[in-house]
Amino acid sequence: MLTYTRNEEGLFVCPDCGATKKNQSTMHYHMKKHEEKLNHACKVCKKEFLQKQTLDLHMRSKHPDNDTKKFKCTHDNCDFTSLTKGNCIIHYLRVHYQNEINEIMLKDGNTFSCIECENEFSSSSSFYYHCKDCIQFEDDNKYTKFKAL
DNA sequence: TAGCGCCCCCTGCTGGG
DNA sequence: CCCAGCAGGGGGCGCTA
Prior knowledge:
3 domains; DNA-binding
């Protein structure tokens, strides 16, 4: 089995490809990819995934049971629900903060950039997700209050 | 060092209007 | 064709063995 080492900066170094990671768990995950030990298969449809969490998400979306959790949009009179908190945040900003976002969004072809922080994003989804850091909310913590149902 | 769980963030694809 | 939403991957953090 391969083992990783630390360099003089204290970073974890992959002996296989030389990649460096500052977090030990991240390097551990990286090493597993080299060893191809990340096969998580769905018991129902046999589909395979790299990560257990991805398998869990697949199970919740394709083979839901009574315990399946969803995140609900906290905006007044909005019934939107999503399997992931991230998607719920994107929905919340895209739909309910459209005006605020339009003020800071600069679209150039398929590239979305933020005039507040000058970051660029390759998709609208990632731009909207990013906007939670650049937009002034009426209720600062509202987007963090999405409840798992 | 190894293993696990949980989370955030980003991305690409898809389906509906 | 565009956009909202879905679903998957990468990696960070914390904890325990």
